[in-house]
Amino acid sequence: QAQLEESGGGLVQAGESLRLSCTASGTFSSINTMGWYRQNPGNERELVATIFSLSITPNYADSVKGRFTLFRDKTKNTAYLQMNSLKPEDTAAYYCYLRDARGNYWGKGTQVTVSS
Q1: Other beta carbons less than 10 A from residue 110's beta carbon
Q2: Quick one: average pLDDT of 29-34?
Q3: pLDDT attached to residue 7
Q4: DSSP conformation letters of the chain
Q5: Which among 53, 108, 110, 105 is positioned nearest to 83, based on CA atoms?
Q6: C-alpha angle 49/112/43, rounded to 5°?
């Protein structure tokens, strides 16, 4: 079973940048999908960006294309989400995600707040 630990959230002003990190530990397949979802209270969790371990091309939500970049360091089992040109509507709890043949795993979440 995989455990996911996130870091990098915080409070920033609109236009600024943040980088989130997610490190996976425990037992999981090397063939997996990692990425990030986000959620605000009362709303459903929505996909931000994901990447398959055998792919070099991440999948992004339309709302973050051109501003966010997802990349992985497979040697460290870590996924990073570089978030540039942040907007107040990016404010949410961001959750790291890993899916392999055994199941779906989630981190505890890290809060990103963007002030206008």
Answers
A1: 22
A2: 90
A3: 94
A4: -EEEEEE--EEEETT--EEEEEEEEES--SS-EEEEEEE-TTS--EEEEEEETT-S--EE-TTTTTTEEEEEEGGGTEEEEEE-S--GGG-EEEEEEEEETTEEEE---EEEEEE-
A5: 110
A6: 70
Per-residue pLDDT, 26: 93
pLDDT at residue 39 greater than cutoff 90:
yes
Residue/partner pairs of 70-76 with CB below 8 Å, 24 or more apart: 70/35, 70/36, 72/34, 74/30, 76/23
Phi, psi of 55 (to 5 degrees): -120, 155
CB burial string 29-56: b at 16+ within 10 A, e below: eeebbbbbbbeeeeeeeeebbbbbeeee
